[in-house]
């Protein structure tokens, strides 16, 4: 007879680590089991080199605030993303003060967030965006300039030997951060296992079936010995990146009908040359190319991983039918069902610009990628930069449209839920998992609320409409995490 546990988390990434941490704090008597198909946690999208490490707070990402057809800009989504990242900062601060997370510099470092654009059209847009954000409490301190001397002070690599005459502009927010989500994930899992959770690595969940008593039976296999096994769970979370779609389909829940995934990979150009690294301390985002998905917005990033500072540029899109870096070549095909095939075909026929963009990216050589880098860094030399493979993303397809956000799919009775999609992902993991708790455990939220307020002081509230409270909480977390206000 299979063992029955309270919670099973499938996938060893930051989403499972965050949900497991919240549940262990709210219901410490529950038995939690984690299954990870690779040899360690944080090896896919949560790995530091598989993502940009941006503490996504919409400080520099233009895709959260696109221009409307009439040229106007609405800050609502940017504010919402920032609100979500503030919840992550608050939870990390509390966990650090309680000894769960280590010193701030083991997972988060102050890194200004910048936006840099060229051409009259984009300069005009960026000016409007700045005007819409500068008086918002959560964007306090945002700066704007079209002066090359000022931008040179902010990010010297952008301005060296730049051809005069082309209009350009930049914004800068000193309060930005660089986050090592791999380190966050490992530290959270270390704490979970120390508190009694069981982590199984090299275990791949293959099937999920609802039992008569309401639990879920999970069939898994040992990836090394190929030995099968099973376990029953009262609640299951599928936080397995692109693998989540396949497992949710296997569960048979009706809520997954109509969904599909489109895989997009990426590569970075990386340099650790001290002379170059010393000239750049920022994450600089720009406009995406026509047809490019939001995850392919070009950016020049300071990264701090395992104590080493480097600079990444990209990402450059790649394509493979795998849903994970360590996935299967048939992933794209085996997801097809009668209920999603027509939606997927519509996506294929209505996203010609995306296909054209992917083809052009795949055709780029190393030299071609460095040429793209020179639009940001005019002095870049081929020999200083090496290619690094980034993570694999599975973008959501639904209703004939390709979606670029994240979406929680939960069964009506709350016994199983999973996460699909990518951006903004890890940065808003806390907010996403809070929403999941509300959806799947509505009868317990009132009981859990006091502890949630201790963990996340702004839980249940928004900050941007309360300037004094926003300033207090943002300042407190900044001081605790040793980052800029």
Write the layout of secondary structure elements.
Layout: E1 4-10, H1 14-26, E2 32-36, H2 76-97, E3 108-110, E4 113-118, H3 120-133, E5 143-145, H4 148-154, H5 156-159, E6 168-173, E7 177-179, H6 181-194, E8 198-201, E9 203-210, E10 216-222, E11 228-238, H7 243-251, E12 260-271, H8 274-277, E13 283-285, E14 299-305, E15 308-318, H9 331-334, H10 338-350, H11 352-362, H12 366-373, E16 386-389, E17 393-398, E18 401-403, E19 406-410, E20 416-421, H13 429-440, H14 445-455, H15 467-481
Parallel strand pairs: 1-2, 1-11, 2-8, 4-13, 11-20
Antiparallel strand pairs: 3-7, 4-6, 5-6, 9-10, 10-11, 12-15, 12-16, 12-17, 13-14, 14-15, 17-18, 19-20
Helix pairs in contact: 1-6, 1-13, 2-13, 2-15
Enzyme class: oxidoreductase
Pathway: Carbohydrate metabolism; tricarboxylic acid cycle; oxaloacetate from (S)-malate (quinone route): step 1/1
Family: Belongs to the MQO family.
Total E-strand runs: 20
Average predicted confidence as pLDDT: 92
> Any guess at the CATH architecture?
3-Layer(bba) Sandwich
In whole angstroms, how far apart are the ends?
Answer: 55 Å
Category from helices, strands and their pairing: alpha+beta
Short summary:
By secondary structure, this protein is of the alpha+beta class.
């Amino acid at each position: 007879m299979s063992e029955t546990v309270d919670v099973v988390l499938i996938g060893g990434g930051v989403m499972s680590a965050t949900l497991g941490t919240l549940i262990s704090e709210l219901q410490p008597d529950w038995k939690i089991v984690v299954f990870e198909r690779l040899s360690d946690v944080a090896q896919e999208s949560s790995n530091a080199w598989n993502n940009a490490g941006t503490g996504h707070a919409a400080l520099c990402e233009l895709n959260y605030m696109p221009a409307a057809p009439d040229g106007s800009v609405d800050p609502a989504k940017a504010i919402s993303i920032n609100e979500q990242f503030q919840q992550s900062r608050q939870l990390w601060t509390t966990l650090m003060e309680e000894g769960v997370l280590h010193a701030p510099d083991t997972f988060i470092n102050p890194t200004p967030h910048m936006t840099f654009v060229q051409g009259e059209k984009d300069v005009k847009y960026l000016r409007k965006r700045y005007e819409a954000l500068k008086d918002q409490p959560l964007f306090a301190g945002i700066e704007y300039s079209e002066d090359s001397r000022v931008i040179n002070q902010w990010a010297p690599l952008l301005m060296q030997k730049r051809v005069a005459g082309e209009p350009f502009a930049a914004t800068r927010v000193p309060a930005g951060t660089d986050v090592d989500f791999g380190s966050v994930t490992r530290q959270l899992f270390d704490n979970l296992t120390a508190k009694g959770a069981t982590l199984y690595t090299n275990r791949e969940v293959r099937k999920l079936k609802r039992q008569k008593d309401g639990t879920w039976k999970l069939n898994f296999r040992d990836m090394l010995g190929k030995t099968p096994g099973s376990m029953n769970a009262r609640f299951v979370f599928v936080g397995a990146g692109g693998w989540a779609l396949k497992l949710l389909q296997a569960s048979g829940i009706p809520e997954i009908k109509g969904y599909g995934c489109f895989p997009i990979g990426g590569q970075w150009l990386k340099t650790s040359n001290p002379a170059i690294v010393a000239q750049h301390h920022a994450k600089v985002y720009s406009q995406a190319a026509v047809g490019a998905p939001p995850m392919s917005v070009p950016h020049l990033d300071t990264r701090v991983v395992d104590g080493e500072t480097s600079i990444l540029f990209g990402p450059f899109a790649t394509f493979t039918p795998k849903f994970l870096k360590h996935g299967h070549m048939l992933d794209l095909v085996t997801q097809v069902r009668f209920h999603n095939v027509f939606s997927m075909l519509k996506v294929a026929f209505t996203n010609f610009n995306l296909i054209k963009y992917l083809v052009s990216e795949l055709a780029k050589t190393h030299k071609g990628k460095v040429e793209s880098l020179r639009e940001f860094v005019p002095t870049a030399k081929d020999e200083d930069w090496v290619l690094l493979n980034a993570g694999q993303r599975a973008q959501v397809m639904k209703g004939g449209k390709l979606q670029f956000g994240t979406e929680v799919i939960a069964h009506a009775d709350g016994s199983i839920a999973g996460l699909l999609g990518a951006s903004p992902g890890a940065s808003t993991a806390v907010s996403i998992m809070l929403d999941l708790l509300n959806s799947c455990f509505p009868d317990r939220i009132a009981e859990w609320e006091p502890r949630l307020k201790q963990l996340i002081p702004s839980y249940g509230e928004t900050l941007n409409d309360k300037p004094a409270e926003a300033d207090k909480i943002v300042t407190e977390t900044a001081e605790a995490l040793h980052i800029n206000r």
